Amino acid sequence: LFFIGCGSEKKEEKIIKENPIQLGEYILKFSHVVSPDTPKGKAAEFFEKRVEELTKGRIDVQVYPSSQLYKDNAVLKALKLDSVQMAAPSFSKFGKIVPQLALFDLPFLFKDINHLHRVQDGEVGQKLKDMVNEKGYIALDFWDNNFKQLSSSKRALIVPEDVAGQKFRIMSSKVLEEQFKVLDANPQVMPFSEVYSALQQGVIDGQENTISNIYTKKFHEVQRYLTITNHGYLGYLVVISEKFWNTLPKELQNAILQAMKESTIKEREYAEELNIKQYNLIKEYAKTSGKLEIINLTKEQKDFWRKTVSKIYPDFYDKSLIGEDLIKGVLATE
Ligand code: LMR
């Protein structure tokens, strides 16, 4: 919220007279499912601050973290109805709207984060944003989390066969489902907000997520083994309700675009910083508690994981799933 000051009523009246701008003329609710201390959480707060500064409080941004407002893909329906104005769901959660965004879920498709950014900032990224716009949303920028790691309470995951027979939580995504099926594991779709208790109660054996999501939701405290696989990427597309966007005067739309541009730069920095910082905190926990084993794979082991799971790419060549052109477009991106 943007404060005018906390003085008496008289003082408040004077400020409003001198400054005829209407504070909180527009309310922009931004709903997400992760903790505030994650790349998305921090960038959402930065965005709030910048929009309120740039619009001098005409837009009041209200950030709701940790699934307080909407869980997982429910937010996309709410955006359509303008019950919420902004969200940054992970790509998997667009499954019913633009399944092609699952391109980013394909394991080991990207060489590294720079390769991924070149894809997002290039032709393939624009094509995907256009598809989302056609469905009646305003697609803004791609935001990072990082690469995902695998954890389990049952067995140290060193070779792909170690995953067989175990139940893993996945986001609702055909790619993630296939990724575990090809390993003879049992994928279970579950909202992010339910993962911790499902792990704690043994409803599932393991999960895959980024370091910041694992650390801030304490998944590592209810798992026995964590393997640094960096097998798949987790990122977001920031979207705004079209209905809301169309009510905004041009100068406020521009302020949002400006704040967004700055937030995206910050977001990428937060993603990098937090991944390192929170990985060190998890390592510290492993060392002091003795309850978690962290496994780092050798290059040969990692190549074996890559070879095993990348077999699923051709299953998604169909245009209604992802499309051969998009998959090959990534592979051809330098
Ligand atoms: C998940 O459900 O694991 C992620 O999409 C959470 C998030 O938004 O990072």
From TrEMBL:
Gene3D superfamilies linked to this entry: Bacterial extracellular solute-binding protein, family 7
Keyword annotations of the record: Membrane, Signal, Transmembrane, Transmembrane helix, Transport
Keyword check for Transmembrane: yes
InterPro entries in the record: DctP_fam (IPR018389), TRAP_DctP (IPR004682), TRAP_DctP_sf (IPR038404)
CDD domains named among the record's database cross-references: PBP2_TRAP_SBP_like_1 (cd13674)
Protein name stated in the entry: C4-dicarboxylate ABC transporter
Keyword Signal: yes
GO CC annotation terms, alphabetical: outer membrane-bounded periplasmic space
A biological process from GO: transmembrane transport
Pfam families: DctP
Similarity remark: Belongs to the bacterial solute-binding protein 7 family.
